[in-house]
Amino acid sequence: MNLADKINQPVFHHVGNVADSLSRPCYVVGGYVRDIFLHRHSKDIDFVTVGSGIEVAEAVAATLGKGCQAHVFRNFGTAQVKRHDLELEFVGARRESYSRDSRKPIVEDGTLDDDLSRRDFTINAMAICVNADEFGELIDPFDGLADLDDQLIRTPLDPDVTFSDDPLRMMRAIRFATQLGFSIVPETFDAIARNADRIGIISRERIADELMKIMASPMPSIGWELLAKCGLLIHILPELDAMRGVETVNGRGHKDNFYHTLQVVDNVARKSKNVWLRWAALFHDIAKPVTKRWDAKLGWTFHNHNFIGARMIPRIFRDMRLPMNEKMKYVQKMVELHMRPIALVEDVVTDSAVRRMIFDAADDIDDLMTLCEADITSKNEAKVKRFLDNFALVRRKMTELEERDRIRCFQPPVSGEEIMEIFGLRPCREVGTIKEAIKNAILDGVIPNERAAALELMHDEARRLGLSPVSDTL
Question: Taking the model in full, what pTM does it have?
């Protein structure tokens, strides 16, 4: 098949001409070729040449003009050339062999066939020639194009060897299936299940990279369900794997919290591209396995699973090598607060409760409401409608109170420093008590969020504590 029109761009002709001048066969390979057929744009272009890829890269950089140079990584035998918004990666064709306890290969020079056969999946094992005489010719030794048409993920060679050599490829198989909506062929999927424990030699950082791509996909549940079914999930996130299944006592079972969670994640994904909100959805019920209890009167209970789940988040993020920064704190806050709007719609929606929710969630209140609306997964349409109608009522009340009371960006009308100055105090418990009384009075609607009312309450609370101002100026 000739794809000259598909790569009829100056960069490919330029690289091909340089390769011809060095008498080197040269091909664009891998993801860029795959994405041509998927009609997906890519700025990263990988080239394989028979011989030194570094030599070709340096020659390409030298002909692209002043300021362009090849960044060489000799340990890996690769070089990168950046030109405007394109990144060109060059490597020599190679064959690889692996030791049992490492995914780092022993690399030797090889042919193009050697290079394509070492790749992870058939859809990534295609090449297009850029040399002038064969410009645009497709090399597809493993029928990757047919697998693209059939939307299939399979390995070029024996999948047990492929996954045992580099277990990260198991994660990549599931990630591609999730991103592209493809199916993993049975023999490839079965090999993942047989080799699942090999994931232990892969760094947590590399696993986290793949999970982030799964979470950014249109339907993240595809990936998480596949991870569970093939046995990888218990190795990479046992807390989530523990949520699978239903336990029954006296004929009463709880819902399958794992599949409920996946539905919540997809519900959030349909409303938001915020990947950290999707992580919050994944973890919102993470403590249900450890809080699950059977009560003869109440049935299955999961008391305080939101608070216990929030306490689990830092350890989970640390174990998974997810960022231990404001992203983690955001997910932790969403997990802790996710029951608050639900409690509101099940009870009377009071101004005080809504104010406190706005105060605690602050700028993340809209995300919290999105998460809680996504958490309604009942098959009872009347129940879903009732909850969503009540959530709409909560949203209206939030808008009214926010416009009136400015709770979301709440700053105490009287600061702790002022309290210390007025009453001649050093930092102490009494200062915190007064501040807390002012905050609670505002949130409960006892006083307006105004300085004069806060000062009056401050003096009342100080008298109760036996404090007197050091001057009468305030």
Answer: 0.86
